[in-house]
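[09:14] KT: can someone run the structure on this one? pasting the chain below
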Amino acid sequence: MESGPPSPARVRPGGPAPLLLQTVHEHRTGLGGISVLKARGTVDAANARRFSEALAEHVADAGRAGEHPLVDLSEVYLACADALRSLDAAAGPLARAGRALPVVQPRPHVREALAALPGIRAHASLACALDALGGPDAPAGPDPVHSPGAQDAPAAGEPADGPG
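[09:31] RB: done, structure tokens below
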């Protein structure tokens, strides 16, 4: 039990970062269309429903367009169980079809939480996710997130000793 004010590591000045969502569509030779939902900020009880709806819409829209859906969580902090349930629900249709929802660059605490979800496949980079989908544009090689003994690499633009 703590006494006194919480440590600075447990408090974010100004509160949680707002949730920002953006979809990017690309075409890759040999793979076709991909649709990447890029999320940034904190998913908490206040916005988990919006996150869930955006994920479900993203997967459905990509399916209708014949695109491969991917989710970029490199700049996301999952602060509640509802966020994980959202990812699990969004990945459900893909899992039932024998596919997984590729999630790009989840931070270590997010990656650990996602490990329990059968319809999610975490990747260290977009290139690794595309390679797993069979895209020839992506370099071949092991995915560091899944390689035994792999060390966590900082997200792009994040210092090696940065938050994560």
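[09:33] KT: thanks! The first strand starts at residue 20 and ends at 28.
[09:34] RB: yep, looked fine to me
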